Predict the 3D structure of the following.
Amino acid sequence: MIEIVPPAFIYILGALLLPLVRGRRLRSALQLLIPAAAFVDLLYMPKGTYWIYQFLGYELILGRVDKLSMCFGYVFVIMSFLGMVYALHVRDTGQHTAAFLYIGSTLGVVFAGDLFTLFAFWEIMAVSSVFLVWYQRDPAALDAGFRYIMVHLFGGCALLAGIIIHVVETGSTQFGLIGYGGLASQFILLGFIINAAVPPFHAWLSDAYPEATVTGSVFLTAFTTKSAVYVLLRSFPGVELLVWLGAIMAVYGVVYAVLENDIRRLLAYHIISQVGYMVCGVGLGSEMAMNGSTAHAFCHILYKALLFMGAAAVIQVTGRRKLTELQGRNLYKQMPICLSLYMIGGFSISAVPLFNGFVSKTMVVAAAGELHRPAIHLLLHLASIGTFLHTGLKLPYGTWFGRAPKGEEVDEIEAHEPPLNMLIAMGMTAFLCIFTGVYPAVLYNILPYPVDFHPYTPYKVVAMMQMLLLTAAAFWIYIDKLGGEATISVDTDWFYRKPGLLLLWFCIHPLQNLRLAFQKSVAGIVSGVTGLSRNPILLPEIGLRYLHLKAVNGLYRISGRSEERTQQLRDLETRISELRHLTYDENVYRRPIGLGVLLAIILLFFYGLIYYIRLR
Amino acid sequence: MKKTLKRIFYLFLILCIPAGFLIEHEHAVFFWHKIPSIDVVFGFLGAMLLIGGARLLAHLVHKEEDFYD
């Protein structure tokens, strides 16, 4: 009998072991062994609630296992394996450690049965994932990482506030259906939708993911947003607000993707768009919609990872990340395998029949139809068109083919296929994209509710093909208007980046000047007191002489000055200065009785005086 | 290779439109589900709308690459 442990612990143990392992082969083996062990662990985990621990009078539940959590558990573990294969060539152990902590904490969130456990893993997830950005080790990544962690810590604070209010109101820490209504649920929802990158709280994603390391970005695409979808599915199904937020974010993502020049940022905007389908499905709340959201999260993790793997491979090989730097270089000749595998991801995200996006995206769209939501139905269709337009057409065309603008000099790029492990990871991911697309039953069987949906009906297939083919035709017509432009697009991060710069200026200039002025005046007082305390016995004399000087000075000012009087004043000043610089010498100031005894006598005198007055 | 791909694309493009007339929506909910090959219009207009909308938005949000520096 295999003893099962929380899968989160396997990854966290792996993260602790990895830096201790010497030898590249052993480390690589461990990198693959950990996800494999977690997968076996998942297979042996029975349904139910277990791993319950008492903590400060509350129950911490590390194992709430049902079909919903298992579905997310499976795809996260599969993704961790694929991501680790992709990252095998990376010698930076720190990156792998951060990735394992990140994956482990995500699984902790997925199997958490109470709000405290959820919150703890939620925060570990934020802190560990930021290192996948920082390991890029350039100033842009460092800045983006700081913005990323600050947004996530804000989201974490909102979540904690919501949890505390919820626990105080209900007395229960159980993590289950929360529903919208009341302050607690609003704070918790805010925490969740920040991680789900719902506009206007989405800019952290398109800001940080493109700055991450080549392999780190592949992990980042999979876990944070999809674990947020999981918690939304668990606690906020059927919330009308989410229907609209989801549909709007699906379109928002694709519109911003049109404007993008950085290939990973373009893909990052498509994460926002695709998560929009899932959030919308959560909001719709029917069994089909919830199944659709879960299935789409599963498929999205695979194809988006494949797309990021392809784009990151180009960046790794060429060192370039912008369409304007890549178009017209005909990279398809040097990287045909990478291009083919990327296209499988492109077709999957675009929901081309026989690829996995088709079997999940159509489910969410059909659920909107079933619930008679025409506006939502059309918005999701529009997002679908935009997805193919950019991820399936613009990005691969601009990256591997493309025409440079007229008059622009095209330099040669020395490119080749990425390392073998990267290609193998891409191949395995591509296989899974096609396999789940061709044989959707394997996915439908693990969905939370019974599935009564058939994606491969003649109408659905033909309608999808019509839509995609005509999108391709429109792309072909407007191809010259869709090339990359050397610009950036201002998004809602403007609201904290520009005021942030202003705050920085305020700290560096006015606040710093104020500090210096304050420091100067305090330092003046301190030096004055220090000077006077050099010889406190002379203080009365210095005081008297100072008064004398001032009086004489005042009188002379009234009666007029002369050479002699000025000299007299100068002498007085010199005398004061001499007195101030005289240090205390006990032999000079020796008295018939010591100073200490004198003070004691004075004290005793006053004590006696007060005693006498009290007695009277 | 390029030519073959183009030919396949055109073939599919031409075939998909009449194909829409041969089949019916299995569970028509909205009125447009009853219009044959309506997704051809959706696909083309949707793409135009997105391209046009994004071009307009570009005037508002496109900035120099050193905007935040």
Summary: The CA atoms of residues 238 and 286 of chain A lie 7 Å apart. The first helix of chain A runs from residue 7 to 17.
